[in-house]
UniProtKB/TrEMBL annotation, chain A:
BP GO annotations: intracellular protein transport; receptor internalization; vesicle-mediated transport in synapse
Family to which this protein belongs: Belongs to the adaptor complexes medium subunit family.
Topology relative to the membrane: Peripheral membrane protein
Role of this protein: Component of the adaptor protein complex 2 (AP-2). Adaptor protein complexes function in protein transport via transport vesicles in different membrane traffic pathways. Adaptor protein complexes are vesicle coat components and appear to be involved in cargo selection and vesicle formation. AP-2 is involved in clathrin-dependent endocytosis in which cargo proteins are incorporated into vesicles surrounded by clathrin (clathrin-coated vesicles, CCVs) which are destined for fusion with the early endosome.
Pfam families reported for this sequence: Adap_comp_sub (PF00928), Clat_adaptor_s (PF01217)
GO-annotated molecular function: lipid binding
Protein name according to UniProt: AP-2 complex subunit mu
InterPro entries named among the record's database cross-references: Adaptor_comp_med_subunit, AP2_Mu_C_sf, AP2_Mu_N, AP_mu_sigma_su, Clathrin_mu, Clathrin_mu_CS, Longin-like_dom_sf, MHD
Automatic annotation (TrEMBL), chain B:
Binding-site residues, a 1,2-diacyl-sn-glycero-3-phospho-(1D-myo-inositol-3,4,5-trisphosphate): K72, Y82, K86, Y87, V88, C89, K90
UniProt membrane topology term: Peripheral membrane protein
GO CC annotation, single: endolysosome membrane
Compartment(s) where it occurs, according to its Swiss-Prot or TrEMBL record: Cell membrane; Membrane, Coated pit
InterPro entries in UniProt: Adaptor_Complx_Large_Subunit, AP2_complex_asu, ARM-like, ARM-type_fold, Clathrin/coatomer_adapt-like_N, Clathrin_a-adaptin_app_sub_C, Clathrin_a/b/g-adaptin_app_Ig, Clathrin_app_Ig-like_sf
Region named Disordered: 642-711
GO MF term set: clathrin adaptor activity; disordered domain specific binding; protein kinase binding
Residue stretches spanning the membrane: none
Domain Clathrin adaptor alpha/beta/gamma-adaptin appendage Ig-like subdomain: 737-850
Name of the protein this chain belongs to: AP-2 complex subunit alpha
Subunit comment: Adaptor protein complex 2 (AP-2) is a heterotetramer composed of two large adaptins (alpha-type subunit AP2A1 or AP2A2 and beta-type subunit AP2B1), a medium adaptin (mu-type subunit AP2M1) and a small adaptin (sigma-type subunit AP2S1).
Length: 435, 969
């Protein structure tokens, strides 16, 4: 029930303004501009209420997208729609930038007409949209009647996200398990909070209307299947994980998931996000940071930080970066590290230690001496936590893809003919250790 | 709007024309100084360049720069003065961008001791922006400032003074308030330093006036007005004006100096003053300031000075007539600024009819000027002129122009001023014209000022009504034109007046009846109509065109269109009709019986319908007639409309005007009136004042009808207005009498001031706490209460008190303690005389302080035998005073007992053979003697009389006590 949608550039100039309902006046455009964009960082909430009108905004690089409504809408839905809108635009013309939006501005209006109707979100599946909203406007004239009717039946049909009659010479399937690890640890090594947010992204190049079934080591699924032999069940339980919550792409049959805990679906063509999940239990922390901070008098600070990698020695983590904050009255820093490079970055008030590559079960150390300037400010330095960034080929939540089967009654290929690729990528989210 | 119109003058008067090479202390040093710094110190281009690109980039760049500065300030290597200055300056810049700076203070303090001007300047700048008062460095800073003040280098002294002024904290005032006056009056101080010192002292005085010591320097400061250097004079005038507002006595000598200075400026040729001539106007700022200074004082008494001042003012007025020497707007602005200030001085003095009339004519010319600002200011000044008796007539000659301004003016704020002026200039002679013009303007007036105009029209119509039919017509017109803006008070007032005036009732009923026949009429009109027809419909019922049934049908046709309160009022009208016209009773009963009334969703309406229906069926005609009798006249009280207008406008404009009018009338009466100088006494000269309810008319017996009948309910309808308006404090004589028998309470109250008392007495000593409450939102200046004992009273009564703070903030209360000693018996009461400045005018209030002889009473208990024994001892005819008088208050035994005890004497029970009589005894303590005192009060209930007998050992005492006590019953 969005009343309208506006797109602004970073200066607050309106690039796109599409109003779906009469209760949104012209002045709503200016109200958002004046009260939110020009307030320069003052407004931090994504939802703003101005004169009984609600504005939901997201920001992509320098572009503001704002959905407006006077009704009591489901805010989560509006944001989901805005993100989807960004995805769709990115799929059509790449990066969302002011220039791209200006160049495609007729097209964006066309898109907005299609994906929102009287404020109600419609089909926002990129693959499908691409069949009838094209950037080359002339093409539609060449479409035959059958093609048009086909599009109509597909869009209005049960499986709106995939059209029929797709054919590939090579049936391929890519599965990426992307995870980001978030951690807050006490100086003594106690985990204060930790969770992994994971995404399963799939790229499918399959002919026809295949029916897929995805299996992972979810505790409940395994218990359900492993009822047969108790021995097997106990063995598999060790490897199974407890997923806190998960959300699926619309193609997944939720009824089946509810009844059988099986994830079965007809995938859209191309890339899509199959599921999102969050785990908080039994997380393997890939790195351990051990800080040691000592204040010598009030003019000197000694810092020693050890990092230990905690994964299979055969794996290599990359792009490791440790950020050690320095007090605000630092007047000079000397750093010594065994591995990688470290320097004092005055503009961020931190020492940054970079290591290109690091194998599992290793450890490395840095020690620094900071000189401080006496100040007349009595308040103590708050000691912000040491944060860390990394990337590596492991899944911290221990999620494993057990199988991905492809069936189909009318397919001229079988499960074995499909080439499947699976890859795990673990990244750091907010990975911090107090010191 | 008002502020921005006046702005050109206000702004220019505060800045000083700069002539010397030295910077002059501006009022807001920080910003100006910051601008100067950016020019004088080069900040590396890339540093500024990064700032402002985006918030994040700015923070990064600043963090980097701060780290760099920290490493420079680390202290292992000594920095040279230039780099120290550079980095301190950068820190200051970063601070001004809104980032916290927590180091570098020490370096800045070091800069203070440098000998280079630029370094010292940056040091002072940093200190005045960044160092807060509780810093530990304040001692070092103060030391550096002291050194600079003593340095004799005018540049350094100037910098130090600027720093003191821009910090301007209490600590600074504590440290330097003694020093700066010395610098100011020292003979060898340079002119530019004197100038800075004067402004610096002004600043310190404004922030913490208590810390600036008054001393012998004050007299020498006054002589700065004679200084050669006009810059010094300008600065000194600002200082003296502020000082003189608080201590007018000490700076009295400045008047003659200011006058002579002013006359020298005014008479000088435009080229004489060279640097201080601004667009051919000689020293306009100084002239304005001198004129302001003169406004702190009454007209000079010395005829020579007075003549010279008059001459000056005449010259200024003459100059306004001369053709402009330049077409530039600055020229006319400067000239007019001086002129307007001169006019306000003339108005302030209010003593030279000739000048007042000339000023008025000058303003009259401005009324048609092209400049909107000038028209606005002219109207505003005329408003004050209109309240002066000398120029009132002169102002009235411009009525056509003002009315024209109302019609043609484009600027709404000017139109509003025109309305104010019309209101101010209105009197009996031109009231019909002005009211008519206001009414016609009302149709097109801006919505924002409509309500105010409505109130003004209502007040004027009432105040100057010669003929009440005119009044009724005007108000009905008002309701017709701007019904939505007619507040409750206005129509309450109409009804009060109609009810109270027999001669107008018939006409009112007829007019209202006619007005109601319009197809669409405003709800307020229905209310007025309903009420008036309910009361006086019988007066027009004889005419077949307005027979009772027609009246009823007319009212009832509006019934369904009205809101609930109006419907309730109409229901009461119906039941009144039942009484007035028995022939329509069945019709009305039918209406009341209908479901829409009897089962109305609104409880109030339902209750009225049920009760009225029942009343009309059950009660006999006699009862009905008693219950639904015509409303008794309303007690006179302050016009509720006036109160509303005052509330709306705040205390500034209207009250001033009213007060000014009143004050004038006191002046006309001539001479200081004795004690009861309350408002009620002042308003008597105006014959119309009674209408406003100011007169202390005896309260009419407001006997409400006994049942819950219509009368009572109608009273309810009006009780809102009554409670909204506090009854005006009665004359202080009344209050004085009340205090004879009690010690605490409110002694005096008017719109501005409330005086409360709390007192206690023991033997011959007493202590009285006087509380002065400022009821307005603006402060009173020069607030000086003085206790005056007449020569007769002086030897008998000792009063001791301390002076109170001369400023009373808006809404604040100050307390004064008076210690009282009774030396011997006395008859008169001391007078408390209060003078203060409120807004622009002096206010004067005198009240009798209720210190009476009976306060020193000590009760003595004695038996019947003793009493009569002593009674007989005091049988000498001189010792006895007897008074037989009629009771003013109802004769209630308990009240009488309480009064006698409150009077101070003991009440002796079962002494007198007649139990109805009251007997009391006590001793009056004075320092010299003690006087025994016996009293006897015999009430006579049949004749409503009292006989009071007093026997004391001293004749005068008996006499006085008898007077005091007999006034109580």
């Amino acid at each position: 029930m969005t009343g309208g949608l506006f797109i602004y550039n970073h200066k607050g100039e309106v690039l796109i303004s599409r109003v779906y309902r009469d209760d949104i006046g012209r002045n709503a455009v200016d109200a958002f501009q004046v009260n939110v964009i020009h307030a320069r960082q003052q407004v931090r909430s994504p939802v703003t209420n101005i004169a009984r009108t609600s504005f939901f905004h997201i920001k992509r690089s320098n572009i503001w997208l704002a959905a407006v409504t006077k009704q009591n809408v489901n805010a989560a839905m509006v944001f989901e729609f805005l993100y989807k809108m960004c995805d769709v635009m990115a799929a059509y013309f790449g990066k969302i930038s002011e220039e791209n939006i200006k160049n495609n501005f007729v097209f964006i209006y066309e898109l907005l007409d299609e994906i929102l109707d009287f404020g109600y979100p419609q089909n926002s599946e990129t693959g499908v949209l691409k069949t009838f909203i094209t950037q080359q406007g002339i093409k539609s004239q060449h479409q035959t009647k059958e093609e048009q009717s086909q599009i109509t039946s597909q869009v209005t049909g049960q499986i709106g996200w995939r059209r029929e009659g797709i054919k590939y010479g090579r049936n391929e399937l890519f599965l990426d398990v992307l995870e980001s690890v978030n951690l807050l640890m006490s100086p003594q090594g106690q985990v204060l909070s930790a969770h992994v947010s994971g995404r399963v992204v799939m790229k499918s190049y399959l002919s026809g209307m295949p029916e897929c079934k995805f299996g992972m080591n979810d505790k409940i699924i395994i218990e359900k299947q492993g009822k047969g032999t108790a021995d097997e069940a106990s063995k598999s339980r060790k490897q199974s994980i407890a997923v806190d919550d998960c959300t699926f792409h619309q193609c997944v049959r939720l009824s089946k998931f509810d009844s059988e805990r099986s994830i079965s679906f007809i995938p859209p063509d191309g890339e899509f996000e199959l599921m999102r999940s969050r785990t908080t239990k039994d997380i393997i922390l890939p790195f351990r940071v051990i800080p040691l901070v000592r204040e010598v008098g009030c003019t000197k600070l000694e810092v020693k930080v050890v990092i230990k990698s905690n994964f299979k020695p055969s794996l290599l983590a990359q792009k490791i970066e440790v950020r050690i904050p320095t007090p605000l009255n630092t007047s000079g820093v000397q750093v010594i590290c065994m591995k990688g490079k470290a320097k004092y970055n005055a503009s961020e008030n931190a020492m940054v230690w970079k290591i290109k590559r690091m194998a599992g079960m290793k450890e490395s150390q840095i020690s620094a001496e900071t000189e401080l300037l006496p100040t007349n400010d009595k308040k103590k330095w708050a000691r912000p936590p040491i944060s860390m960034n990394f990337e590596g080929p492991f899944a911290s939540s221990c999620l494993k893809v057990r199988y991905l089967k492809v069936f189909g009654p009318k397919l001229n290929y079988s499960d074995h003919d499909v080439i499947k690729w699976v890859r795990y990528i673990g990244r750091s989210g907010i990975y911090a250790t107090c010191c | 709007m008002c502020a921005c119109v006046a702005a050109p003058f206000a702004v220019t008067t505060t800045s000083v024309p700069r002539t010397g090479s030295l910077p002059v202390l501006p009022e807001t040093t920080t910003e100006a100084a910051a601008l100067r710094t950016r020019k004088s110190v080069k900040i590396k281009a890339p540093f500024c360049y990064f700032l402002g690109k985006s918030k994040e980039a700015e923070i990064k760049r600043i963090n980097k720069e701060l780290a760099n500065i920290r490493s420079k300030f680390k202290g292992d290597k000594a920095l040279d003065g230039y780099s120290k200055k550079k980095y301190v300056c950068k820190l200051l810049f970063i601070f001004l961008l809104g980032h916290d700076i927590d180091f570098g203070h020490m370096e800045a303090v070091n800069l203070l001791s440098s000998n280079r001007y630029t370094e010292k300047q940056i040091g002072y700048l940093f200190i005045s922006v960044l160092v807060n008062s509780n810093s530990e460095l304040i001692r070092l800073i103060n030391n550096a400032i002291k050194n600079d003040l003593a340095s004799r280098n005018p540049t350094f002294m100037g910098l130090a003074l600027h720093c003191v002024a821009s910090v301007g904290s209490r600590e600074m005032a504590e440290a330097f308030a003694g020093e700066i006056p010395r610098v100011l009056v020292a003979g060898d101080t340079m002119d530019s330093v004197k100038q800075s010192a004067a402004l610096c002292l002004l600043r310190l005085y404004r922030t913490s006036s208590d810390l600036v010591p008054m001393g012998d320097w004050t007299s020498r400061v006054v002589h700065l007005l004679n200084d050669q250097h006009l810059g010094v004079v300008t600065a000194a005038t600002s200082l003296i004006t502020t000082l003189a507002q608080k201590n007018p006595e000490e700076f009295k000598t400045s008047v003659s100096l200011a006058v002579s200075r002013l006359s020298r400026i005014v008479t000088s040729a435009s080229t004489d003053l060279q640097d201080y001539t601004y667009y051919f106007v000689p020293a306009p700022w100084l002239s304005v300031k001198l004129l302001r200074l003169l406004q702190c004082y009454p007209p000079p008494e010395d005829p020579a000075v007075r003549g010279r001042l008059t001459e000056c003012l005449e010259t200024i007025l003459n100059k306004a007539q001369e053709p402009p020497k330049s077409k530039k707007v600055q020229h006319s602005n400067a000239k007019n600024a001086v002129l307007f200030e001169a006019i306000s001085l003339i108005i302030h003095h209010d003593s030279e009819p000739n000048l007042l009339v000339r000023a008025c004519n000058q303003l009259g010319q401005f009324l048609q000027h092209r400049e909107t600002n000038l028209r606005y200011l002219a109207l505003e000044s005329m408003c004050t002129l209109a309240s002066s008796e000398f120029s009132h007539e002169a102002v009235k000659t411009h009525i056509e122009t003002v009315i024209n301004a109302l019609k043609t003016e484009r600027d709404v704020s000017v139109r509003q001023r025109a309305v104010d002026l019309l209101y101010a200039m209105c009197d009996r002679s031109n009231a019909p014209q002005i009211v008519a013009e206001m009414l016609s303007y009302l149709e097109t007036a801006d919505y924002s000022i409509r309500e105010e105009i409505v109130l003004k029209v209502a007040i004027l119509a009432e105040k100057y009504a010669v003929d009440y039919t005119w009044y009724v017509d005007t108000i009905l017109n008002l309701i017709r034109i701007a019904g939505d803006y007619v507040s409750e008070e206005v129509w309450y007032r109409v009804i009060q007046i109609v009810v109270n005036r027999d001669d107008v009732q018939g006409y009112a009923a007829k007019t209202v009846f006619e007005a109601l026949q319009a197809p669409a009429c405003h709800e307020n009109l229905v209310k007025v109509g309903g009420y008036i027809l309910g009361e006086f419909g019988n007066l027009i019922a004889g005419d077949p065109r307005s027979s009772p049934l027609i009246q009823f049908n007319l009212l009832h046709s509006k019934f369904h269109l009205c809101s609930v309160p109006t419907r309730a009022l109409l229901l009461s009208t119906y039941i009144k009709f039942v009484n007035l016209f028995p022939e329509v009773k069945p019709t009305i009963q039918d209406v009341l019986r209908s479901d829409s009334q009897l089962r109305n969703a609104d409880v109030e309406l339902q209750q009225r319908a049920v009760e009225y229906l029942r009343l009309s069926t059950v009660a006999s005609t006699d009862i009905l007639a008693t219950v639904l009798e015509e409303m008794p006249p309303f007690p006179e009280r302050e016009s509720s409309i006036l109160a509303k207008l005052k509330k709306k406008k705040g205390p500034s404009t209207v009250t001033d005007l009213e007060d000014a009018k009143r004050e004038r009338s006191v002046d006309v009466n001539g001479g200081p009136e004795p004690a009861p100088a309350s408002t009620s006494a002042m308003s008597t000269p105006s014959p119309s004042a009674d209408l406003l309810g100011l007169g202390a008319a005896p309260p009419a017996p407001a006997g409400p009808p006994p049942s819950s009948g219509s009368g009572g309910l109608l009273v309810d309808v009006f009780s809102d207005s009554a409670s909204a308006v506090a009854p005006l404090a009665p004359g202080s004589e009344d209050n004085f009498a009340r205090f004879v028998c009690k010690n605490n309470g409110v002694l005096f109250e008017n719109q501005l001031l409330q005086i409360g008392l709390k007192s206690e007495f023991r033997q011959n000593l007493g202590r009285m706490f006087i509380f002065y409450g400022n009821k307005t939102s603006t402060q009173f200046l020069n607030f000086t209460p003085t206790l005056i004992c007449s020569d007769d009273l002086q030897p008998h009564l000792n009063l001791q008190t301390k002076p109170v703070d001369p400023t009373v903030e808006g809404g604040a209360q100050v307390q004064q303690v008076v210690n009282i000693e009774c030396v011997s018996d006395f008859t008169e009461a001391p007078v408390l005389s209060i003078q203060f400045r409120y807004g622009g005018t002096f206010q004067n209030v005198s009240v009798q302080l209720p210190i009476t002889l009976n306060k020193f009473f000590q009760p003595t208990e004695m038996a019947s035998q003793d009493f009569f024994q002593r009674w007989k001892q005091l049988s000498n005819p001189q010792q006895e005073v007897q008074n037989i008088f009629k009771a003013k208050h109802p004769m209630d035994t308990e009240v009488t007992k309480a009064k006698i005890i409150g009077f101070g004497s003991a009440l002796l029970e079962e002494v007198d053979p007649n139990p109805a009589n009251f007997v009391g005894a006590g001793i009056i303590h004075t320092k010299t003697t003690q006087i025994g005192c016996l009293l006897r009060l015999e009430p006579n209930l049949q004749a409503q009389m009292y006989r009071l007998t007093l026997r004391t050992s001293k004749e005068a005492v008996s006499q006085r006590l008898c007077e005091l006590l007999s006034a109580q019953f």
